[in-house]
Amino acid sequence: xxxxxxxxxxxxxxxxxxxxxxxxxxxxxxxxxxxxxxxxxxxxxxxxxxxxxxxxxxxxxxxxxxxxxxxxxxxxxxxxxxxxxxxxxxxxxxxxxxxxxxxxxxxxxxxxxxxxxxxxxxxxxxxxxxxxxxxxxxxxxxxxxxxxxxxxxxxxxxxxxxxxxxxxxxxxxxxxxxxxxxxxxxxxxxxxxxxxxxxxxxxxxxxxxxxxxxxxxxxxxxxxxxxxxxxxxxxxxxxxxxxxxxxxxxxxxxxxxxxxxxxxxx
Length: 266
Hints:
Elements: H1 4-8, E1 31-38, E2 42-50, E3 53-59, E4 70-80, E5 88-90, E6 97-109, H2 114-120, E7 122-129, E8 133-140, E9 160-166, H3 177-180, H4 191-196, H5 200-203, H6 212-235, H7 251-265
Antiparallel strand pairs: 1-2, 1-6, 2-3, 3-4, 4-9, 5-6, 6-7, 7-8, 8-9
Protein backbone atom coordinates (compact mmCIF):
# COMPACT_ATOMS: atom_id res chain seq x y z
CA UNK A 1 0.00 0.00 0.00
CA UNK A 2 1.09 3.57 -0.64
CA UNK A 3 1.50 4.57 3.04
CA UNK A 4 2.79 1.25 4.45
CA UNK A 5 6.42 2.41 4.64
CA UNK A 6 5.40 5.72 6.25
CA UNK A 7 3.33 3.95 8.95
CA UNK A 8 5.91 1.22 9.58
CA UNK A 9 8.50 3.81 10.65
CA UNK A 10 6.28 5.61 13.19
CA UNK A 11 4.70 4.95 16.59
CA UNK A 12 1.41 6.87 16.42
CA UNK A 13 0.90 6.50 20.18
CA UNK A 14 3.85 8.87 20.61
CA UNK A 15 3.97 11.10 17.53
CA UNK A 16 1.50 13.89 16.65
CA UNK A 17 1.88 13.05 12.96
CA UNK A 18 -1.28 11.80 11.23
CA UNK A 19 -1.57 8.12 10.30
CA UNK A 20 -3.43 9.26 7.21
CA UNK A 21 -5.37 7.47 4.55
CA UNK A 22 -5.08 7.40 0.78
CA UNK A 23 -7.47 10.01 -0.57
CA UNK A 24 -8.51 10.11 -4.20
CA UNK A 25 -10.45 13.02 -5.64
CA UNK A 26 -9.54 13.96 -9.22
CA UNK A 27 -11.51 17.20 -8.94
CA UNK A 28 -9.16 18.69 -6.36
CA UNK A 29 -6.16 20.80 -7.30
CA UNK A 30 -2.84 19.10 -6.63
CA UNK A 31 -1.34 20.31 -3.38
CA UNK A 32 2.36 20.79 -2.73
CA UNK A 33 4.35 21.88 0.28
CA UNK A 34 7.91 22.26 1.49
CA UNK A 35 8.52 21.48 5.15
CA UNK A 36 11.70 22.75 6.77
CA UNK A 37 12.77 19.92 9.04
CA UNK A 38 15.35 20.07 11.82
CA UNK A 39 16.05 16.41 12.51
CA UNK A 40 19.52 14.81 12.69
CA UNK A 41 20.31 17.32 9.94
CA UNK A 42 18.50 20.43 8.77
CA UNK A 43 16.80 19.77 5.43
CA UNK A 44 13.73 20.66 3.38
CA UNK A 45 11.04 18.12 2.43
CA UNK A 46 9.38 18.72 -0.93
CA UNK A 47 5.99 17.01 -1.16
CA UNK A 48 3.79 16.71 -4.26
CA UNK A 49 0.25 15.37 -4.14
CA UNK A 50 -0.33 12.44 -6.48
CA UNK A 51 -2.79 9.55 -6.39
CA UNK A 52 -4.05 10.42 -2.92
CA UNK A 53 -0.69 10.73 -1.15
CA UNK A 54 2.25 13.13 -0.99
CA UNK A 55 5.27 12.03 -3.00
CA UNK A 56 8.26 13.21 -0.99
CA UNK A 57 11.86 14.24 -1.54
CA UNK A 58 14.31 15.39 1.16
CA UNK A 59 16.36 18.32 -0.14
CA UNK A 60 19.37 18.86 2.20
CA UNK A 61 20.19 22.42 1.12
CA UNK A 62 16.69 23.48 0.17
CA UNK A 63 15.31 24.59 -3.21
CA UNK A 64 17.33 27.05 -5.29
CA UNK A 65 15.87 29.61 -7.69
CA UNK A 66 19.12 29.60 -9.70
CA UNK A 67 18.85 27.34 -12.80
CA UNK A 68 22.61 26.74 -12.62
CA UNK A 69 22.28 25.14 -9.19
CA UNK A 70 21.33 21.44 -9.00
CA UNK A 71 20.10 20.47 -5.56
CA UNK A 72 20.25 16.87 -4.33
CA UNK A 73 16.76 15.53 -3.56
CA UNK A 74 16.49 12.13 -1.87
CA UNK A 75 13.25 10.31 -2.71
CA UNK A 76 11.69 9.06 0.54
CA UNK A 77 8.45 7.30 1.46
CA UNK A 78 5.04 8.68 0.51
CA UNK A 79 3.28 10.74 3.19
CA UNK A 80 -0.47 11.16 3.84
CA UNK A 81 -2.17 14.30 2.58
CA UNK A 82 -2.89 15.40 6.15
CA UNK A 83 0.84 15.67 6.72
CA UNK A 84 1.05 18.56 4.27
CA UNK A 85 -0.32 21.04 6.79
CA UNK A 86 1.69 19.70 9.74
CA UNK A 87 3.89 22.04 11.75
CA UNK A 88 5.22 21.08 15.14
CA UNK A 89 7.48 18.68 17.02
CA UNK A 90 8.02 15.00 16.22
CA UNK A 91 9.14 13.00 19.29
CA UNK A 92 12.06 10.61 19.37
CA UNK A 93 12.05 8.01 16.63
CA UNK A 94 12.10 8.10 12.85
CA UNK A 95 12.18 11.69 11.56
CA UNK A 96 12.33 13.11 15.11
CA UNK A 97 12.71 16.87 15.14
CA UNK A 98 10.96 20.16 14.56
CA UNK A 99 8.89 20.67 11.41
CA UNK A 100 8.09 24.07 9.89
CA UNK A 101 5.64 24.57 7.03
CA UNK A 102 8.04 26.64 4.93
CA UNK A 103 5.95 26.87 1.74
CA UNK A 104 2.72 25.53 0.29
CA UNK A 105 0.49 25.94 -2.75
CA UNK A 106 -0.51 23.97 -5.82
CA UNK A 107 1.47 22.21 -8.51
CA UNK A 108 0.75 21.32 -12.13
CA UNK A 109 2.50 18.56 -14.12
CA UNK A 110 4.06 19.72 -17.38
CA UNK A 111 3.64 16.21 -18.80
CA UNK A 112 0.57 14.06 -19.48
CA UNK A 113 1.53 10.97 -17.47
CA UNK A 114 3.02 11.60 -14.02
CA UNK A 115 3.57 7.90 -13.27
CA UNK A 116 5.47 7.41 -16.53
CA UNK A 117 7.59 10.50 -15.81
CA UNK A 118 8.43 9.24 -12.32
CA UNK A 119 9.35 5.82 -13.67
CA UNK A 120 11.55 7.46 -16.31
CA UNK A 121 13.08 9.73 -13.67
CA UNK A 122 12.25 13.05 -15.33
CA UNK A 123 9.33 14.93 -13.79
CA UNK A 124 8.68 18.47 -15.06
CA UNK A 125 6.16 20.59 -13.17
CA UNK A 126 5.03 24.11 -12.28
CA UNK A 127 4.75 25.35 -8.70
CA UNK A 128 2.43 28.07 -7.50
CA UNK A 129 3.35 28.65 -3.86
CA UNK A 130 4.03 31.58 -1.59
CA UNK A 131 7.81 31.33 -2.13
CA UNK A 132 8.36 28.86 -4.96
CA UNK A 133 6.80 29.53 -8.36
CA UNK A 134 7.36 28.72 -12.00
CA UNK A 135 8.79 25.73 -13.80
CA UNK A 136 10.94 23.03 -12.14
CA UNK A 137 12.22 19.53 -12.85
CA UNK A 138 13.11 16.53 -10.72
CA UNK A 139 15.68 14.30 -12.45
CA UNK A 140 16.81 10.94 -11.11
CA UNK A 141 20.57 10.57 -11.14
CA UNK A 142 22.53 7.60 -12.43
CA UNK A 143 24.51 7.05 -9.22
CA UNK A 144 24.29 4.16 -6.78
CA UNK A 145 20.67 5.11 -5.99
CA UNK A 146 19.93 5.67 -9.65
CA UNK A 147 17.60 2.80 -10.48
CA UNK A 148 13.96 2.93 -9.44
CA UNK A 149 11.34 0.39 -10.38
CA UNK A 150 8.17 2.16 -9.29
CA UNK A 151 6.92 5.72 -9.15
CA UNK A 152 6.51 7.07 -5.64
CA UNK A 153 8.32 4.17 -3.96
CA UNK A 154 11.39 4.89 -1.87
CA UNK A 155 12.67 1.36 -1.51
CA UNK A 156 13.35 -0.61 1.68
CA UNK A 157 16.92 0.37 2.55
CA UNK A 158 17.83 3.59 0.79
CA UNK A 159 16.17 6.62 -0.69
CA UNK A 160 16.59 7.32 -4.39
CA UNK A 161 18.88 10.10 -5.51
CA UNK A 162 17.35 12.85 -7.66
CA UNK A 163 18.21 16.44 -8.54
CA UNK A 164 15.83 19.38 -8.09
CA UNK A 165 16.46 22.09 -10.70
CA UNK A 166 14.72 25.39 -11.39
CA UNK A 167 13.97 26.15 -15.04
CA UNK A 168 14.85 29.59 -16.34
CA UNK A 169 11.73 31.79 -16.31
CA UNK A 170 10.39 34.97 -14.71
CA UNK A 171 10.59 33.35 -11.25
CA UNK A 172 14.22 32.22 -11.47
CA UNK A 173 17.20 34.19 -10.20
CA UNK A 174 20.20 34.20 -7.89
CA UNK A 175 18.27 35.14 -4.74
CA UNK A 176 18.83 32.63 -1.93
CA UNK A 177 15.16 32.05 -1.13
CA UNK A 178 15.87 29.89 1.95
CA UNK A 179 17.92 32.69 3.49
CA UNK A 180 15.69 35.51 2.24
CA UNK A 181 12.44 33.92 3.48
CA UNK A 182 13.29 31.54 6.36
CA UNK A 183 10.02 31.66 8.32
CA UNK A 184 6.83 29.60 8.31
CA UNK A 185 3.98 30.38 5.91
CA UNK A 186 1.56 28.91 8.46
CA UNK A 187 2.56 30.72 11.64
CA UNK A 188 5.14 33.26 10.44
CA UNK A 189 7.35 31.81 13.15
CA UNK A 190 10.78 30.22 13.22
CA UNK A 191 11.89 27.02 14.96
CA UNK A 192 12.04 28.75 18.36
CA UNK A 193 8.44 29.92 18.02
CA UNK A 194 7.20 26.48 16.98
CA UNK A 195 9.01 24.79 19.83
CA UNK A 196 8.01 27.51 22.28
CA UNK A 197 4.30 26.99 21.56
CA UNK A 198 4.43 23.23 22.09
CA UNK A 199 3.93 21.49 25.43
CA UNK A 200 6.98 21.11 27.67
CA UNK A 201 6.45 17.32 27.71
CA UNK A 202 7.16 17.23 24.00
CA UNK A 203 10.10 19.52 23.67
CA UNK A 204 11.81 18.81 27.00
CA UNK A 205 11.25 15.08 27.42
CA UNK A 206 11.67 14.09 23.77
CA UNK A 207 14.64 16.03 22.51
CA UNK A 208 14.79 14.93 18.87
CA UNK A 209 18.31 15.63 17.62
CA UNK A 210 21.44 14.68 19.53
CA UNK A 211 25.02 15.49 18.65
CA UNK A 212 26.55 17.17 15.62
CA UNK A 213 25.68 20.50 14.08
CA UNK A 214 21.91 19.89 14.21
CA UNK A 215 22.15 18.85 17.87
CA UNK A 216 23.98 22.07 18.75
CA UNK A 217 21.40 24.07 16.80
CA UNK A 218 18.55 22.33 18.60
CA UNK A 219 20.11 22.98 22.02
CA UNK A 220 20.20 26.71 21.24
CA UNK A 221 16.63 26.60 19.94
CA UNK A 222 15.41 24.86 23.11
CA UNK A 223 17.12 27.50 25.23
CA UNK A 224 15.60 30.31 23.18
CA UNK A 225 12.17 28.64 23.26
CA UNK A 226 12.35 28.49 27.05
CA UNK A 227 13.10 32.21 27.09
CA UNK A 228 10.13 32.90 24.82
CA UNK A 229 7.86 30.87 27.07
CA UNK A 230 9.08 32.76 30.13
CA UNK A 231 8.43 36.10 28.45
CA UNK A 232 4.92 35.05 27.44
CA UNK A 233 4.09 33.80 30.92
CA UNK A 234 5.15 37.13 32.41
CA UNK A 235 2.91 38.94 29.93
CA UNK A 236 -0.17 36.81 30.76
CA UNK A 237 -1.16 36.48 34.46
CA UNK A 238 -3.18 33.33 33.80
CA UNK A 239 -0.04 31.70 32.32
CA UNK A 240 -1.63 30.97 28.96
CA UNK A 241 0.89 31.34 26.16
CA UNK A 242 -0.87 34.13 24.36
CA UNK A 243 0.28 37.43 22.94
CA UNK A 244 -1.58 40.28 24.68
CA UNK A 245 -3.96 42.13 22.42
CA UNK A 246 -3.05 45.67 21.51
CA UNK A 247 -5.28 48.26 23.18
CA UNK A 248 -7.35 50.24 20.67
CA UNK A 249 -6.29 53.85 20.29
CA UNK A 250 -8.65 56.55 21.48
CA UNK A 251 -9.88 59.05 18.89
CA UNK A 252 -7.67 61.73 20.48
CA UNK A 253 -4.53 59.60 20.13
CA UNK A 254 -5.33 58.71 16.52
CA UNK A 255 -5.94 62.37 15.72
CA UNK A 256 -2.65 63.42 17.35
CA UNK A 257 -0.70 60.80 15.36
CA UNK A 258 -2.40 61.80 12.14
CA UNK A 259 -1.49 65.44 12.66
CA UNK A 260 2.08 64.54 13.53
CA UNK A 261 2.41 62.46 10.35
CA UNK A 262 1.02 65.34 8.29
CA UNK A 263 3.48 67.77 9.84
CA UNK A 264 6.41 65.47 8.93
CA UNK A 265 5.28 65.31 5.28
CA UNK A 266 5.18 69.11 5.09
